[in-house]
Amino acid sequence: MSPCTTASRDLDEPLAGTAATARTWLLLEQPGPWGARALTSSHLDPVLGRALEAAAEGTGVRVALIRRPGRHADCRDAHERRVYAAHTTPGNTWLHSAVTTDPQRLLDIDFASLGMGLPHTFDAALGGTAHTGDPLALVCTNGKRDRCCALLGRPLAAELAASGVEGVWEVTHLGGHRFSPTMLVLPYGYAYGRVQAHHVKEILQGVREGRVVTEGCRGNSAWERPGQAAELAVRAATGEERADVLRVVRTEGVPGVAPQGVPGVVQTVAGDADGTARGAGARPDGAPLLEAIPRSEATPRGEATPCWKVTVAHADGRRWHVTVAQGRALPPRPESCGSPLGSPARMDVVAVHEEAPVPVLR
């Protein structure tokens, strides 16, 4: 196993709140080898690659290349290419697909509309339709970005394809090399780390049933990192599995410093190593149930740290206020293979409070 994944796994680095952020994913099939910046260093025309990057900037759309699992001959010709667009915001999740012989047509898409969750621009530009097949399992395999992705991701993608799992693709980049093998599932947009074949099958079965498997989940790409951690904390606290019922409706920065309660420790909601809550998470007096965690796993005492209050809303009207603090993963570890030791940011859930229901006046 490669050094960055070994260190991350051995140090039990939490996965929650580490997913790449994108409301909408635009995926273009590009066989053959990929470079570190695949849109401009593959057999795709680099002029087109740069144009797609520019068109997507600031729109909430993330463009990535995909290819079928297996050996990748260094051939430059790809007559027909599969193209997918997926919007991941709960309440408006969808996955559309198309086939094109001219990838330049992707520039006919209105990227601002696509990022807002409007599929008509994709369909009009490429003749796309709603995807009716199995959910997509995108496994990061680009060894030019990090060797972990090739050493761990490619065998996983090949094993899944060989076992008959439909919808498996290799993808250029999902971030978080040290969590390899990493995977993104569409249409719901949940990312996973340290996945194994049997776990992937469980995750995909959950997607077919409209459920989210939270084990190994890094978060929903629709949200920024504090929102990802907050949503997963609410799922852990409530046992909610349904995929399309929780939304991050507000994220606001709040003043925050590392708590001073117990020498040498900070406090977090009782739960797993990633700080996500388990159970109701409250004492009889209504205060959150807190558990000390080693200071080596958080921000040093007294040092200011970014902190957010995240509001998570349920489709049935319930709301939770989740306090999330940005800590540092310690001791230092490589964030990717060959990189110097560092202390990656981590999202620590400090408290989960359910908002009291508003009484109905009769």
Detailed description of the structure:
This protein has 362 residues and is an alpha+beta fold. The protein has 2 domains: 1-222, Glutaredoxin; 243-354, no CATH class. The protein is 20% helix and 28% strand. It has 7 helices and 18 strands. It has helices at 3-10, 46-56, 111-115, 120-126, 147-162, 197-208, 225-238; strands at 24-29, 61-67, 81-87, 94-100, 129-130, 136-140, 168-171, 183-186, 190-192, 217-220, 246-254, 265-269, 290-294, 307-314, 319-328, 333-334, 341-342, 345-354. The strands form 4 sheets. It has a 10-stranded mixed beta sheet. A hairpin with a 6-residue loop joins strand 16 (333-334) and strand 17 (341-342). It is globular and about 65 Å long. The relative contact order is 0.15. Residues 257-299 have low confidence and may be disordered.
Number of domains in the coordinates?
Answer: 2
Q: Give the name of the CATH architecture of the largest domain.
A: 3-Layer(aba) Sandwich
Task: Tell me the major beta sheet.
Answer: 10 strands, mixed
User: What would you call the shape?
Assistant: globular
For the termini, the CA-CA separation is: 64 Å
Strand content: 25-35%
Name the helicity range: 10-25%
Poorly predicted spans: 257-299
CATH topology of the largest domain: Glutaredoxin
The strands making up the biggest β-sheet line up spatially as 5-4-3-1-2-7-6-8-9-10
Q: Tell me the CATH superfamily of the largest domain.
A: Glutaredoxin
Order of helices and strands: HEHEEEHHEEHEEEHEHEEEEEEEE
Mean pLDDT: 82
**Please, how many helices?**
7
What class do helices, strands and sheet pairing give?
A: alpha+beta
Strand tally is 18
Give the C-level CATH assignment of the largest domain.
Answer: Alpha Beta
The Cα radius of gyration reads 21 Å
